[in-house]
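user: can you give me the structure for this one chain? tokens are fine.
assistant: on it. calling the predictor now.
[tool input]
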Amino acid sequence: MKRWIFVALCFLLVCPTSALAQTNIKVDAKDYPLQITGWLNEESSLVGSIRLTAPASVEQFTFLASDLKRQEGDEVINRQHIAFIGEPRLKAAIPKDFQVKVSNPELPGTYKGQIEVLLPTQQRQIIPVTLLVKARPKLIPTKGNEQVHLKLTQCNPLLDCWVAGLFLPKSAFLQSWDLAFDNSVDAPVKVTGAEVLLKGEQTDYQLTSNQIKVSNIPQSLKANQVVRLPLTWERFQIPPDRYTGAVYLTLEGAKERLIIPLDLSMRIAPLMPLLVLLMGIVLGRLIKYMQEKGIPQAETLRKVKELEQKVSQTDAEDRNILIPMVGKAKQLVQQMKLEAATAEVEKITARLDCLQKLRTLEQNLEPLNHPQIKGENGILQKISNVRTKIDLEQDEQAKTLLEEVQTDVANLKSSQMLMGPGKTPDLKISEIVKGVTEAVVAVGNAVQSGVKKPVDKWVIWWQKSLLFISGSEFRAEATLWFARPLFSLALLIGLSVIGMRSLYVEKGVTFGADPFSDYLGLILWGLSADVASRSLSHLTGEEEKEK
């Protein structure tokens, strides 16, 4: 019995040493291998935790770390930059967390190495370590891209893009814009989200992602390079206006969003403004025409109409004589020969007065039966001849015949051949003939002032020859049929280009956002643009006067 007790005591003395020799520190399965993730230049973040457990108490154990080598290159974090925080002691069967801190990484990337946990009587416990060093995104907009300014236009390639190309630069037809950044960090940057928020200044319209957006999001941008993000839009879906706002980029790991201010101006296609401008210019020229020629033309036409009304109330025979003359006067008015038309109206008025007086004279002489009145070369026959001369517009010959009639009537009245003594009627023939003569004299003077002296045929031939040799006739014809129309067309085009450049290209970056104001400005400019065309009008006026 005593022997058994002695053996048991020896066993108890030996057991603790054997147990200590068999103690093995275990690593929690979640921490094997050990993974540490943190941010470059933020040492407080490069800390990992490892949970250790021992079946028996451990008064002292040792951590040994290896160098951490970067997988993307040859860079190494030396072992002296790896520290263990916590007292290296374990209680039996009680898990304990220890912190592993890494400092002084110079580059982002994935570093790998190992940690050894040692006990004097234990085999080495090797724990693989993976260190992921991430860099905070540092995207810097390239020079000129700190703020994006876009001036765009709507146009149809099949309709009016060629017109827009005459007035606007190539940048007005862009379909996209590259947001360029300098990624100076040696690590890729992942863009996880992008929003474009723009609001119209005049219409308060907010653009949607269907109208403008940053394409290919999410996207990873390459490390240590100048990188681009395409900003795309649909020009036909963006109403005209000036839109201000920004592009908001969400970067993985960034503490704040990257904001790029954006200023986008959209205008309508230039075809409709050009047509409105042309309408304004034409309207302005029409107003000027009405002021300078249209109103005088209308006034002259009114005189012709009044004369036509008087002619229509006369005797049928006299009306047939004067109606063709009134028609000629109308043609002169339509041809803008207003002075000639006015002179023609005066002539026709004088002829009308003359014919009316001749008709009165005939009515007074018709009851009388006398050879000097109704003879072959009597007064009535001469009156008929006067009417024929007026019909042929031979006013001078008519005046001569009327003077003969005046003499015959005076002789007839003075001889008192028509009635008996004391019964001579007061026919007032002399007064009528005097009035007719005065009217014909006025017509004759008007005609005489416009009649040129006859020129011999050889003189006319010589003048034509000299004109042909000098080229004056050709220049006159060229001016009439080519120079003036081409000059008018060039002036119209020039005024249109100046107006479009002033109101559409330079000041109309949002043309169409306020249609009433924008189009009214074009029309008013067209109305006032006629000031620039006064020289042409003066030339035309001088030529008309010469004619």
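assistant: here you go. The domain at 139-269 is CATH 2.60.40.10 (Immunoglobulin-like). The first helix runs from residue 2 to 21.
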